[in-house]
Amino acid sequence: MLNLATLNQTVGNAIKLGQPAISVDTKKKENIGNFKNNGKEYAEKGKPVEVSMHDFPDKTLGKVVPYGVYDIGQNKGWVSVGISSDTAQFAVNSIRTWWHSMGKNSYVDTNEIFVTADCGGSNGYRVRLWKHELQKLSDELKLKITVCHFPPGTSKWNKIEHKLFSYISKNWRGRPLVTTETVINLIGSTTTNTGLKVMAVMDKNNYKTGIEISDEDFAEINISVSDFHPEWNYTISPRVV
């Protein structure tokens, strides 16, 4: 639990300093089409919404991959709805689009972005491509990017799960996700009594799987690690060119 305390303290300090602290993760893939969506929704008596009897993916409509960025201090969410693979490139590009669309207007004078993420998945601490892409983003934005990963088995404490994703699921419960536009509209209309605001966009890029980062390329990452669990806590800084 010590790492969770350290993580929370790091996030709290960032917010006090007026710097962005974001929680990131991938929501589960969703089939697009007239499929059953768990939950109940009001409908005219005797006129239930008819859906397909099976949930086999539609080869034409496919699936979508929502990747979320939750601004912890400002209670704002950003979701990139991908139509390709859930890769580290997709994850980092979601952070990039969040920054250009929402973040930089809120944090004009910052020199650092704090990121909390799970240990696995496309933003996992062992994924070389994740750190490689973060380095490219750091160079591009001229900002440090500090990452704190949750220990294995503690992903439920990741803010995005219960501050953003859970409310998205409630908002679209019982409604078939018939098109990608439906997904984007339902995500974007998600609100809470505490003032949550969400923006959603489609990411039409095609992300390749299986990209490997060589030892030489990985060695060029300008990374500094924490004394406490350096594999989970590290900062990537812009490279001087």
What is the structure about, briefly put?
With 241 residues, the chain is of the alpha/beta class.
- CATH fold name: Nucleotidyltransferase, domain 5
* Mean pLDDT level: 88
Strand runs, count = 9
Helix and strand content put the structural class at: alpha/beta
Q: What percentage of the residues does DSSP assign to strands (E)?
A: 15-25%
The radius of gyration is 19 Å
The top-level CATH class is: Alpha Beta
How does the major sheet shape up?
A: 9 strands, mixed
Could you say what the CATH architecture is? 2-Layer Sandwich
Helix content: 25-40%
How far the N terminus sits from the C terminus, by CA atoms, comes to: 40 Å
Number of helical segments with 4 or more residues: 6
Spell out the helices and strands N to C. Answer: HEEEEHEHEHHEHEE
Structurally, how many domains make up the residues?
1
Name given to the CATH homologous superfamily: Ribonuclease H-like superfamily/Ribonuclease H
Describe the structure.
This protein is an alpha/beta fold and 241 residues long. It has one domain: 2-Layer Sandwich (Nucleotidyltransferase, domain 5). Helix content is 31%, strand content 21%. The chain is built from 6 helices and 9 strands; from the N terminus they run αββββαβαβααβαββ. Strands 1, 2, 3, 4, 5, 6, 7, 8 and 9 form a 9-stranded mixed beta sheet that branches. The longest helix is centred in the middle third of the chain and has 19 residues, at 88-106.
